[in-house]
Fold CLAP1 protein.
Amino acid sequence: MEPAGMDYFCEQVQQKDVGRRMQVGQELLEYLGDPARSPDLEQDQQRLDKVIDELTAWVNSSNFKMEPRENSDPSLPQR
């Protein structure tokens, strides 16, 4: 299914399913990276702002933990 535009992303980032939101995140990156697919961004800054606000709220409310990766560069100090 080809995303219709920012309306699609506004709806999708509000989903409760974490797996689906992760998938939508990749779709959003691809969409934003291709100007031919995202012509509505320049015409509707307010809609883009809404999607960013939804993503920010989701990230801020997530209970995630990230483990620092070990340094792969031997010239840099290890923990």
In short: The chain has four helices and no strands. The CA atoms of residues 41 and 49 lie 10 Å apart. The chain has a mean pLDDT of 74.
